[in-house]
Amino acid sequence: MNIKYYLPLIYLFPTSIVAQHTNTAIDRELKVAIPKLTDLSATISENKEDYSTEINDEQLADNPNLISHFLNLAVDQKQEMLIPKLIEMYRKYPQRDLILVDYAQGAYFHSIQDYKKAIKLYSNLLKTHPYLDKVRFKLAQWLFEDTQLSNAEEQFNQLKNATLPNFINKQIALYQEAIKEKQEINFNIKFSYIKDNNINNASSEPYIYIGSTKFKKTEESLPQKAEGIQYQLNINKIHNIKDNHNIYIENELEGKYYWNNKEYNDINNRFYLGYQYQNANNRFAFLPYYEKRWYSQKQYSNENGIRLELDKRLSNQWQFSTSSEFAQTRYKHSSQKRKKQLYSGTLVHILSPKTALYLGSDILFENTHQKRNNSNRYSLRLGASHQIKNLFSTQITLQVAKRYFKGNDLFVAKKRKDTEWNFSATIWKKEWNLWGIIPKLNYRYQKINSNIPEFFSFHKHQLNLFFEKNY
Q: CB burial class (10 A; 0-12, 13-18, 19+) of residue 98?
């Protein structure tokens, strides 16, 4: 499955999208930018000898056979930083082995993650020397790392008739199984019991003032309680067409069912069908989508939109992701249409294999024909994930947002301004599972301070145990 985690936003795509009702009782979480590039260190390991020796430049410069020996050794022992100097020495000799030069040069390009040059060099080498099985095996590995899965599969298949060591044949089998798994349908399921003492996100203030007149709120306008089940089902498939080009299919279903307050039952389903370009260090996706929502056990809205995603690996420790959406929402029982623009960016810093930090920022524009419902929302996200030795995995997120409405409120003659705080902490142990279902304990705190507190200010705590399975 895809991994998830987040500098302030760099806005790359001017796009617009449309949203749900401005009533905070039925607002949903934004689909922020989440990095999706795989970890290059998670490739299949190779067996190699531990060998070292010392020699000076003078000894090398006068001995082309020794240079060729060390070029091979630099490739096999993954000492690629030595290759440019060795090739510079080796090129002085007219009788140099040109195949060896290309072989070593390709390994060097791969070591600096210049996959385009490395793959081109080895592909050209195999056109004139198709019997070089070692070159073909490395080419197939690099194509796999560069997510050119169909091309990698083709190269591995050509090695089936070659006479290779058993451990190489075993590695080929592992790669082919990994290629198959990467193109299978992936499922992610989450579900939990939820108890919410303010399901409608309402202010607990019992009175409101319109001018100097005091009114008592109805019972329905005060915080409502509910118990039920929250669930998510994500299904996705990425099919490699050719080179780095892919078809992207995904369906996201999420919902809440309250058995003692069904008025707030909420189901949302979004379906993507689009294009994805991905290599070892970059990913771009163009994803048209259709979204349908049911609220209070009735069809609520339909949304058509486009989502753009861009991921870039800046280094082995840094990764940046940005996304944007535009869409239009039509409501079942209203002629009102809503347009929304979302811009989201996330920067991740991987401190170690067990620790990552992220910083993210989001901008949300919502517009309808009623000015009082139009708003701009600006948010900043901070987060971290950490595995505590071999005990527990943890993840925390803090989000602060400002939301400004463009028109006066319907009952109060001023423009609404909200400050939002959201905090989330999750802890789990991967080894504690039953049939692959992992329990995770999550605490959430949400607070809104509004300049119209009698309507929109509230805060609440939630502690939930949810269960998650990927397959």
A: exposed
* DSSP assignments along 353-412, one per residue: TTEEEEEEEEEEEEE-SSGGG-EEEEEEEEEEEEEETTTEEEEEEEEEEEEEEEEE-SSS
Distance CA 344, CA 310 (A): 10
**What domain count does the chain have?**
2
Give percent of the chain with pLDDT exceeding 90.
67
Q: Of 299, 225, 296, whose CA–CA distance to 265 is shortest?
A: 296
What range does the domain containing 431 cover? Answer: 24-37+186-470
Listed in order, strand segments (DSSP E) in 95-144 are: none
pLDDT at 217 over 90: no
Domain limit, last residue, from 181, 200, 225: 181
The residue among 290, 317, 313, 312 whose CA lies nearest residue 302 is 290
Separation between Cα atoms, residue 202 and residue 218, nearest integer Å: 12
Model's pTM, two decimal places?
0.85
pLDDT tens, 225-249? 999 999 999 999 999 999 999 999 9
**162, 181, 200 — which closes off a domain?**
181
Partnered with residue 269 across adjacent β-strands are: 253, 292
Specify the 3-state DSSP secondary structure of 228: strand
Domain-located, residue 265: yes
Residue 269 near residue 233 (C-beta atoms within 8 A): no
